[in-house]
Automatic annotation (TrEMBL):
GO molecular function: hydrolase activity, acting on glycosyl bonds; xyloglucan:xyloglucosyl transferase activity
Residue ranges of domain GH16 in the record: 21-244
InterPro entries xref list: Beta-glucanase-like (IPR000757), Beta-glucanase/XTH (IPR044791), ConA-like_dom_sf (IPR013320), XET_C (IPR010713), XTH (IPR016455)
UniProt-listed GO biological process terms: cell wall organization
Name this polypeptide is given: Xyloglucan endotransglucosylase/hydrolase
Length: 308
């Protein structure tokens, strides 16, 4: 028997409703996979430096090559050694950035780091501010670890202040810019100018205020870097290669006149507080990409972390 017109209309409406429901349930291509614009791009205010303008080879010279234009550096690690470089001058504050691209595939245990430190000046009692791309196993993402050590908390008994991220992009596919703004009142960690973490000066005991140098390196951190050391560097995959480019420093040098340098502003207004757009971008990054924050770790002794 043929369906009546009213039945056909009802059936059509039901089919349309089901189709819309199924569409709504499908994974949507994604505006949410990119952070909102921070509205402020401090990296654009600084020029890229030739390596020799700001840095020197620190160790493993046989495991690094400089590009013909002198502006990008390739580091690699094999069973015999990794490699590292260090800024020619020490700084009291500033902007420190580098574009980095890491290797795909099996890279467990490999640590590609861009960081500030004074470990050579204050051995056993040093300060450090880290951005570390921690290697992984196929099918799992790289982890970006940010960390702050203050006056020896990275020496002996480790008191780390880690915040870790699985980034919203593949760091092996292209270069991305990783930067630290270290000012007297805060440390800001940025990825492609998006603030991902703000570490404020709440007490003198929990904030690094001595001069530091900028470093880059690739090294074997198998004991802890990948799933707490479960997966280690496998040298059947060597060499492990990391590339650094677009090196930028806008800092107040330690040997300069105390009042002769203004810190690089963390926000467009020049104030310590981030703009509304920057706050929104940072909130997005932490909600969508953060996978660990030490202040939320109940296994930590929070008496050691008064800033939490």
């Amino acid at each position: 028997m043929a369906a009546r017109p009213g039945d056909q209309s009802a059936t059509l409406l039901l089919a349309c409703a089901l189709a819309l429901l199924l569409l709504a349930l499908q994974p949507q291509p994604c505006r949410a996979q990119q952070p909102p614009s921070p509205g402020y791009y401090p990296s654009a205010t600084l020029r890229s430096l030739a390596f020799s303008e700001a840095y020197r080879t620190l160790w493993g010279p046989q495991h690094q090559t400089l590009s013909p234009d002198g502006k990008s550096l390739t580091l690699w690690m094999d069973r015999s050694s990794g490699s590292g470089f260090k800024s020619a001058r020490a700084y009291r504050s500033g902007y420190f950035g580098a574009s980095v691209r890491v290797q795909p595939g099996y890279t467990a245990g490999v640590n590609t780091a861009f960081y500030l430190s004074n470990s050579e000046e204050y051995p056993g009692h040093h300060d450090e501010v880290d951005m570390e791309l921690l290697g992984t196993v196929p099918g799992e993402p790289y982890t970006l670890q940010t960390n702050v050590y203050v006056r020896g908390s990275g020496d002996g008994t480790i008191v780390g202040r880690e915040m870790r991220f699985h980034l919203w992009f593949d760091p092996t596919a292209d270069f991305h810019h990783y930067a630290i703004i270290w000012n007297p009142d805060q440390i800001l960690f940025l990825v492609d100018d998006v603030p991902i973490r703000r570490y404020e000066r709440k007490t003198e005991a929990t904030f690094p205020d001595r001069e530091m140098w900028a470093y880059g390196s690739i090294w074997d951190a198998s004991d802890w870097a990948t799933d707490g050391g479960r997966y280690r560097a496998d040298y059947s995959y060597q060499p492990f290669v990391s590339r650094f480019a677009d090196l930028k420093i806008g800092g107040c040098v330690a040997d300069g006149a105390p009042g002769g340098c203004q810190p690089v502003p963390a926000s467009p207004s020049g104030a310590a507080a981030l703009s509304t757009q920057q706050e929104a971008a940072m909130l997005w990054a932490q909600r969508n990409s953060m996978v660990y924050y030490y202040c939320q770790d109940s296994s930590r002794d929070h008496a050691l972390y008064p800033e939490c």
